[in-house]
Amino acid sequence: EDKVVQSPLSLVVHEGDTVTLNCSYEVTNFRSLLWYKQEKKAPTFLFMLTSSGIEKKSGRLSSILDKKELFSILNITATQTGDSAIYLCAVQEGNYGGSQGNLIFGKGTKLSVKP
Amino acid sequence: KAGVTQTPRYLIKTRGQQVTLSCSPISGHRSVSWYQQTPGQGLQFLFEYFSETQRNKGNFPGRFSGRQFSNSRSEMNVSTLELGDSALYLCASSRLAGANTGELFFGEGSRLTVL
User: Fold this and answer.
1) Which residues of chain A does B51 touch, with a Cβ-Cβ cutoff of 8 Å?
2) What pLDDT digit, counting tens, does each position of B48-74 carry?
3) By a Cβ cutoff of 8 Å, what residues of chain B touch chain A?
4) Is A33 exposed, middle or buried (0-12, 13-18, 19+ CB in 10 A)?
């Protein structure tokens, strides 16, 4: 059965700390891995990773994928209270050709950043 | 530009009733996917529509159905509601230009409570 596992499930840090969120997966027909941030209702897109070893970076956030070991990490440096959210990892699977395929989500990591 | 719009935002139903949720994608987006989010199961894929055709379907019973109209707006219907159907139902749209975009834009969701 296809699955995506995130760790830790929750994390409490102080402002300025650096955090690493983990995502491992077992998916039959891998297409890409995506990270989302969910603060209140709508998850917002952070990164899409398709190739191993290529770091994606946006401000204080960065992510990398290892397709051999089947995992990805999301790093957040110099955390701020505004980073408090649930971070979701999802693997997109399925064939190309007029379809987004199926996103398989992990349960998420709840990050709380204390002032 | 306007984001993904879902209506209604909140609704309460009783067991045995049926419900219809609506999703208007971002202008120009032709792919619409539906997800169910619960505390226990996280985000789970329901189905995906593109050009008025269902392209993918998740592991949900036949009580869950959907459709897409020519203007890309989508509806999902749940019949014979059960208590376990209480959840946040999220709609996501994407442009699907090219082989693989992966970036889904989520709506705020419809919070369904079944009593």
Assistant:
1) 98
2) 898 898 888 888 999 999 999 999 999
3) 3-4, 31, 33, 35, 42-45, 48, 50-51, 55-56, 58, 88, 90, 94, 96, 99-109
4) buried
Spatial CB neighbours of B98, under 8 Å, sequence gap ≥ 6 = none
Distance from C-alpha of A45 to C-alpha of B3, rounded to nearest angstrom: 13
pLDDT tens track for A4-40? 999 999 999 999 999 999 999 998 888 889 999 999 7
Burial class for B39, CB neighbours closer than 10 Å (0-12, 13-18, 19+): exposed
Contact B104, B5 (CB under 8 A): no
Count residue pairs from A and B with Cβ separation < 8 A. 76
Could you tell me which chain A residue has the CA closest to the CA of B88? Answer: A41
Distance to chain B for A53, nearest Cα, Å? 19
Q: Residue B80 has which token pair?
A: 């014979």
DSSP string spanning B7-62?
E-SEEEE-TT--EEEEEEPPTT--EEEEEEEETTTEEEEEEEEETTEEEEE-S--T
Closest residue in A to B111 (Cα–Cα) = A41
Tokens of residue B53, six digits: 């055709």
User: Partners of A39 in the beta sheet?
Assistant: none
What's the rounded Cα separation, in Å, for the pair A34 and A56?
Answer: 11
Measured between beta carbons, the chain B residues lying within 8 angstroms of A101 are: 48, 56
Spatial separation of the C-alpha atoms in residues B88 and B96, rounded to whole Å: 25
